[in-house]
Amino acid sequence: TDDDTFSNVFCENSKKLIDVHLFALAAKYYSLSNLGVCTPLEDVLEAWRGDNEGTTGIKTDEFMNNKKSHEVQVMSELVDKIVNYCGIKQVIDIGSGKGYLSSYLSMQYNLKVYGIDSSNSNTSGAHERNRKLKKHWKAYQRRGRANLKNQRWEKSNDRPVESEMKCTAINEKPFIDSSFQSQDQVVIQPSCSFTERATSETSKQTEVDSVARTQSDDSKVSEEVLAMLNVLPADAVEDFSLSQCNYGELCEEEKVQRKMASLKAKASKSSESNLYIPLTSCITAETELSDIITDLEDCIMVGLHTCGDLAANTLRIFTAKPEIKAVCSVGCCYHLLSEQFENQEDCSEEVWGFPMCQYLKDKGWCCGRNARMSACLALERVAVGQMLPTESLFYRAVLQVIIEDIYGVTKSNQHVGKTFSKSSSFIDYVRKSLKKLELDDSKLPDSCIMDYYEKYKHRMNELEAFNMLKVVLAPCIEVLILLDRLCYLKEQDNIAWSGLVKLFDPVKSPRCYAVIALKKQS
């Protein structure tokens, strides 16, 4: 497009918006989906596919909400491809939170995962949640066996009629199922009468069919009823097919051998180190990982919705530490990013969340908090009918007018938070908010609060229109933040490949872009 295409969006003198339609077209033009700078997820998965086959795993929506389930499954599949491509087995999950991604990576893909979170309650909760998940799988295993036993019992009761119908087709040849090789497992007496022979044949065929059904049922159970057990490492789950054999028919030597094998397996499992280890630590750009992880080795660093500066610091640690061979980072909470040029102060020695790349640093680029707040909005959700919470936004806007007029406060480090959902009315909302902001509400009568509400009520539609414009602009601001991170990686000499990949469905998970990079082989 020509430089002049969008020149008439704003008035040249007043700088006011004069063409809404052109504004929307410009915003779409400069969005990530239109710029062509992203690498398709399918291309990345194909490039790093390797020889390993896909695995059938746990249904994550049994333990997570729909959004988290979608994120964990997609991201873990990609991480698995990267670690196999790089030949590594260790994962560091930065800002691991409740440990959903860490648990899934360790159990589904048999990886050693260190989940690091600054919140001790998150770490403790993740540890306990992981323990309960393993316990749940064991219970699921026992329940699956019981269900299988009941299914066989029901089928065996229905079998005689069907077997008798097949008797007429039985001849004097011994029937030997292909799964049996020894002569003594199926014995036919040729001298018996047809009835006896048919009964014998039917009995033996039923026995053989039962074994065949056992194998088929085992397969069905492991695929359906026990699908979630596939998440555990191959050596962490007892093999069902072995345990279904008739233990009473084994000779003493075989019994002893099996018992010894079982004891060895249990001893091996008990001595095995945990595959998922939650740790509590506050991560900064200067963090020395070897101080936190004593057995640090070649690894990948991942982050699923790392908040604010943590996403930027994840990339800085990746470029600085030789042990980290790859990174896959999905950031969020852009409004919490620190900006070098926001306050126009000379703090060049500090580490900032934005900008990261030298190009934007040289230009002294600044977004500002309002723009970063807008970047957090979800255009795709609004596009499918999930409208903005207009009333709560209106409450918040009028509250700000009250605080400025009555208390003379224009800036505060305190936050109102989710007061709207806990309030019964606008008056209740204002009073709860003032308490949170540590402002005295005793000099503010209810009538005064309602006067402000009535004064601005007619402008609610205006506020909604303004917020819709912010939603339309949101992807453009997100582009700036994500391309800054990608450019930072492109500026490094030790990076073999880096790119932006759209991982998630943006309706399910609005912050859907991952910054991915691989180091050059040393």
TrEMBL record:
Domain of life: Eukaryota
Pfam families: Methyltransf_32
Domain (Methyltransferase): residue spans on this chain: 67-340
InterPro entries per record: Methyltranfer_dom, METTL25, SAM-dependent_MTases_sf
Name under which the protein is recorded: MET25 protein
Species, as recorded: Ceuthmochares aereus
Name of the gene: Mettl25
